[in-house]
Amino acid sequence: MSAVRLLLGLVVLAGLLGRPAFAWAEEVYSYQDDDGVLHFSNAPSDARFRKVNRSGGSPMYKKATAQARARPIPAAMTGTKLERFREHVRTAAEKYRLPEKLLLAVMAVESNYDHRALSEKGAMGLMQLMPGTAREMYVDDAWDPGQNIEGGARYLRVLANQYGGDPVQVLAAYNAGPEAVRRAGGAVPNIPETREYVRKVVDLWKAFEAGR
Asked: Which of the residues are catalytic?
């Protein structure tokens, strides 16, 4: 991916996320409520908030692992294969304030909308959750499409908050893990698979947003 293309994609997609492309609050705080929902703020108003270490110092970031391997983009997103999961996607996108088309693009590249997909590394289901990540995202059954989509969306929101809404960093971390992004100085790691993964999801997301 060329530097110009990456920059343009970052600016456009950050707009879709509704977050500034390069913004990162001076301090970010988080807490987990009784329902297991993570809350983030740069202006904490609740005594439960604790400062998040930008380098990934929270327990969740330390334990987070790489996600699925990049998969071929499907030729089309029509048919019952996808339609049966649309309501789950819509609900998760609204709950975690993510673009619905982003979730569709991630699902397409991760599993080609196959809720039974299993990678050679053990990533499961539509969003290809690793077992550890599934547990951290409160997914009891990663083979259940609704729970899998919910867990994947929750993890994308965690990453979006960690990286200030930078979509390229979010996608790179979803694929290779936050530690790999940290070692790369916040850039896409020099891993061919991860670079191809980010390119595929970005291109597909833009195509879906454009109605193609």
From this structure: 110
Could you identify the residue written with the tokens 């979010």?
170
Longest dimension (CA), the chain: 49
Residues facing residue 39 across a β-bridge: 31
- Tally of domains in the chain: 1
Q: In what order do the strands lie in the sheet with 29-32?
A: 38-41, 29-32, 50-51
Domain limits for position 195: 3-24+64-209
Round to whole Å and give the CA distance between 64 and 56.
Answer: 9
Model pLDDT for residues 103-155, shown as the tens digit of each residue: 999 999 999 999 999 998 899 999 999 999 999 999 999 999 999 999 999 99
Q: Is the pTM of this model over 0.90?
A: no
CATH number of the CATH domain containing 77: 1.10.530.10
In a domain, 115, yes or no: yes
